Amino acid sequence: QQQVKQSPQSLIVQKGGISIINCAYENTAFDYFPWYQQFPGKGPALLIAIRPDVSEKKEGRFTISFNKSAKQFSLHIMDSQPGDSATYFCAASNSNYQLIWGAGTKLIIKP
Amino acid sequence: DAGVIQSPRHEVTEMGQEVTLRCKPISGHDYLFWYRQTMMRGLELLIYFNNNVPIDDSGMPEDRFSAKMPNASFSTLKIQPSEPRDSAVYFCASSFGGSGRLEQYFGPGTRLTVT
Order of strands, edge to edge, in the sheet holding A19-25? Predict the structure, then answer.
């Protein structure tokens, strides 16, 4: 019940296209859902996060869509750029300051 | 701010040797996390501290692993004796619980290779 399932494992998108990564969870006590971005040789860095009181949050080209009833949330990257090529992790927390992490998605944006 | 500082950045050691990884969290942060990242197992939480006190060490794989946080500015992760299967990238992260935000700031990681 503590798991966060992330898909796909890898994703190739053409430049300018929309990248979509999905995550699902079971624990209804989770109340914080961040997405982290990791470049090779670097640590993960927070990209965008959402609380379950809203269904969508947008920051620039990055949008989180949240479906509380389905216990799913997704990251959408609009107008994907080669610089977006990285590994993306979703995570969830129930406010005990510990994050439960998805397995990661390796995103490649083809020029 | 310099961010989370980890040392060394790379460590190559022989099986059976003791390895010590070091972390300096962001000043003012009261939570510190140690993670291990591998291709096979992804990102695993090993242990985390709050105000220098270990809160959850259930992720520590074996008794060969130990972690300490003697003060708010410094933490160590020790592996003794090291084994080839310990080869991974070890990350330290810190966060500030008082803001109500759960954002974790990661260091650059230590790439450990045990031969």
Answer: A4-7, A19-25, A72-77, A62-67, A56-59
